[in-house]
């Protein structure tokens, strides 16, 4: 059965009386070249095991199961579970879990597969890309790589450099956990039904040791969020809105003491700059208590 064939997918839809659900952002990957390259590149051969999010009809799942020792696929749509059992049920190294990745216990799911190395491979619904990505990054699970299919525009943001137009809060936050690399440009026609925008395959290599060590991660991410909350404002004014418990003159002193001019904007800072800034803000906050 050719699961990368639009004809096959349409026939499966007919047999199981299915249609893509817009509320779930379902656009099924069917381009065989993209599927093959995704399976090949998703972890550079460093992991024995793969956690797939959103297997759909199993086009990518099948290729992952051919290459890796174990594949655990989390599918939110209960309608697709019997389809996957029909198309890939004979794969002994494949486990299908019907669950919402945002609500399930990822640590429990991942635990049996960590000894051989575990990476994530996912064709994420566009409407929930950032929440799922941050969930994976903040989970504390020692993934080797996280490889995701995202909107081309989102990929540009995730790979952006400080000072560029695309650089934003998600870019800075991601840099704390790993390094993002754009692997492939994927046209809308590679999906069924085709989305309205083109996509890109993005691979994040997780840091084994973080390049910077923030004293309080909650403050770090609060600083990042505040810095980009009002992009047209200077960093000092943005932080003043994000940390109302600190007087503005204290924030001016903090920014200057970190070596930045008073008129700098948040998009000029890299993750090391944000870490230094958050540590100093943390000290001031502690000093107030």
Question: What topology emerges from the helices and strands here?
Answer:
Elements: H1 6-15, E1 28-29, H2 32-41, E2 49-53, H3 59-67, E3 70-75, H4 81-88, E4 94-98, H5 106-110, E5 118-123, H6 129-138, E6 145-151, H7 152-158, H8 169-177, E7 178-186, E8 191-192, E9 199-206, H9 217-229, H10 235-242, H11 248-257, H12 271-288
Parallel strand pairs: 2-3, 2-5, 3-4, 5-6
Antiparallel strand pairs: 1-8, 6-9, 7-9
Concise structural overview:
With 289 residues, the protein is α/β, with parallel strands linked by helices. It has helices spanning 6-15, 32-41, 59-67, 81-88, 106-110, 129-138, 152-158, 169-177, 217-229, 235-242, 248-257, 271-288, and strands spanning 28-29, 49-53, 70-75, 94-98, 118-123, 145-151, 178-186, 191-192, 199-206.
Question: What features would you describe in this structure?
Answer:
- With 289 residues, the chain is of the alpha/beta class.
- Helix content is 40%, strand content 17%.
- Strands 4-3-2-5-6-9-7 form a 7-stranded mixed sheet, with helices on both faces. The protein has a two-stranded antiparallel ribbon with strand order 1-8.
- Helix 4 (81-88) links the parallel strand 3 (70-75) and strand 4 (94-98).
